[in-house]
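User: I'm putting together notes for a lab meeting next week and I want to include a structural view of one of the chains we've been expressing. I don't have a solved structure, so I'd like a prediction I can at least talk through. The sequence is below, exactly as it appears in our construct file.
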Amino acid sequence: MGCALAALIAVLLTGCRQMSGSAGPGTLSGGAPARSFGQDTVFLAVNECSSFGTTSFTEAPCSSERAAARVIARHDGRPDDGPPCPPTTDFVLHIGTQPAADGKGVIPQGYACMRNLQPPHPGDPGGGGGPRTIVGDCVHSAGPGQVRETACDGSGEREPEYQVTRAVRSRAQCPASTALYVQLGGEEPVGCARRL
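Assistant: Thanks for the context. Below is the predicted structure for the 196-residue chain, given as C-alpha cells.
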C-alpha cells in the first residue's frame, strides 16, 4: 500500500490547477464516479474522510481502516476562481460536475482541500509538496524565474536551495539578507527566502 499511496500522492500534488481532461466527482482521470448524491448532499463535505483508490476516491468513515485523508475545506467552482486551500493542505481533490443518480440535482464542480490522516504531510512547512508554498518551505530552481517546492530535509527528488523565512505584503518588507522572492499569494503574497 505504501508504494501505491506514494504514487497517488505524487499525482495529486500538482497543486491547485485543474488538469485538462481531469476527472469527474471523486475520480482521477478516466475513473468512474465514487458515489452520486441528491441536491442536499455534499460529496466529501468538511470533516468527512476519503479512501484512496487507483482511479477514484470514495467517502469512508474517518475511523475505518480504509480512511486515508480528511476534508479540511470544500469549495464549489474551480480552484483558480475560489478561495485558496488552508496552508497545510496535503493535496487538492478536483471534483467535476455530474448529474445526481436520482435525477434531483447535480454534484457541482468543486474542490476538496485534503489532509492525510497519517504522515507524511507534504503540506506541513518544509514537507516538500503541498499545493501552496508557505513560510518554512524549501524550493529549488526549476528554470529561469521559476522554483519548485522540495523537502527541506533533502529527502525530495531535488536538494533544497532556498527556504522561505517570511511572508510579507511587498518585497521592500523582506530582510536585507533575502536571496530570492517567492510568489505565495494571499494577503502576504511575497515570500522572502534565504539561500541554504
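A couple of points you could mention at the meeting. Helices lie at 2-12. The longest strand covers residues 69-76.

User: Perfect, that's what I needed.
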